[in-house]
Amino acid sequence: MKSKNYALIGLLGALVAFGPLSIDMYLPSLPQMSVDLASSAQQIQKTITVFLVGFSIGMLFYGPLSDIYGRKKILIIGISIYIFASIGCTLSESVEQLTLFRFLQALGGASASVISRALVKDLFEQNHIPKVLSLMHIITMIATLIAPTLGGLLTQYFGWNAIFKLLSLFSASILLGVFLRIPNEFPKNSRPHFIKNYIAVIKDSRAWSFIFALSGTFAGMFAYITASSFIFVDQIGFSQLQYAFLFGFNITGIIIFTILNTYFLRKYSSYKLLKAFTLVACISGFYLLLISLLNFHHPFYLIIGLLMFVGVTGAIGANAIANLLNIFSQAAGTVSGLAVSFQFGFGALASYFTVLLYRPDSSLAMTLIMAICGFISFLSLRINKQLKNYL
Questions:
Q1: What is the C-alpha separation between 317 and 215, in angstroms, rounded?
Q2: Distance between CA 220 and CA 367 in Å, rounded?
Q3: Deepest of 114, 184, 242, 347, by most Cβ within 10 A of its Cβ?
């Protein structure tokens, strides 16, 4: 591919990174935000839940809107909403204001995540699409890896408001890139065709098996994201930077398991690997629940279980999406949008119940939700009779 295409891929990868940056960068600052805004841990944790709800809702609408009115126009509107909301987060003086602007931030940011994938199909030849998506995935993982550390540094030296100032500048620069690099052309799909695809996917029980497998572990990871900073910083005594490095350690686990998945795909089908990785998630979830029930307080026990559970989420996501696209090759955009929307919807539910059950002296709320989510992911592939002979 030409060098100018790599610049475009970098822009598309940055669009996909809106989600990870918006969530992961401010995780180390949650305890400090709780103090500064005179709010409880549960109130601050709800800002994550609200973001996930907004992101999930936005996912369902931006795809068809971009089909009807054009990718670039809808993307510009979405990013503009994100910039406005990020500035609002910076100026928030109460947890209620912050929660409102986080919801708006999610509604705007969802446009980047959805439309960036649609643009790949629009702008690149079919034989280049796998490589383009892989490069975008690498950019997303790098963003996820550095976001908590960067957020921890910003909070430590400049305060948590600096995180949202940086997100405002980042999104403004991406908006400029969209103006300059994204063409106005777009595929014209009719609304009836879009609705027909949705109905076909919803009626197929195999789709729900893969969506639940994907969403279960993703939701478990968000239970970890919601509660882990309070557990490791407030309960165990980690510094914000130590927590950021711990978070990065788990993201490194995702990268390692994803590389292993790529290697094993030479010998095994993605479906068989998906079943194996959901088993790992299920076992890891119940292991974490057990050490919470037994009050094993040493962080090593938690870190090992979290590494295994969080580590396999990337491989599970890749294999679940691959199987969905294999079954619904003529409705790839629809099934991808539905799957990702359910991902974030389940994440929001897991985050909500983690907040609801959270106690400041225990990790039980987090590990209980992770165990349940891991079991759902495991079970979803094993109770569907239509998958009995599926390879």
A1: 8
A2: 9
A3: 114
Measured between alpha carbons, how far is residue 214 from residues 91, 222, 277, 346, 378 in Å? 36, 13, 11, 10, 10
* Helices of type H across the chain: 3-16, 18-24, 30-36, 41-69, 71-91, 95-123, 129-158, 161-181, 191-203, 205-229, 240-264, 270-293, 299-311, 313-327, 332-357, 364-380
Copy the structure tokens of residue 316. Answer: 């599970």
Buried b / exposed e over 204-236, threshold 16 CB at 10 Å, is bebbbbbbbbbbbbbbbbbbbbbbbbbbbbebb
**3-class state of residue 264 by DSSP:** helix
Q: Domains along the chain?
A: 1-189 (1.20.1250.20), 191-391 (1.20.1250.20)
Give percent above pLDDT 70 in the chain: 91
In single-letter form, the type of residue at position 277 comes to: F
Q: What is the dihedral of CA 191, 195, 200, 205, to 10 degrees?
A: 140
Q: Where are the alpha helices (DSSP H) in 230-363?
A: 240-264, 270-293, 299-311, 313-327, 332-357
pLDDT tens, 16-54? 889 889 988 888 888 888 888 988 888 888 898 899 889
Structure tokens at 49: 């839940």
- How far is residue 122's CA from residue 124's CA, in Å, rounded to a whole number? 6
Residue 125, C-beta contacts closer than 8 angstroms, at least 6 positions apart: none
Q: Which one-letter amino acid corresponds to residue 58? A: G
- Tell me the pLDDT tens digit for each residue of 53-88: 898 888 888 877 777 777 899 999 999 999 999 999
Distance CA 261, CA 258 (A): 5
Which SS3 state, helix, strand or coil, does residue 389 take?
coil
Contact 216, 376 (CB under 8 A): yes
Token pair for 135: 């490069």
- 83 near 172, Cβ under 8 Å? yes
Is 309 strand, coil or helix?
A: helix
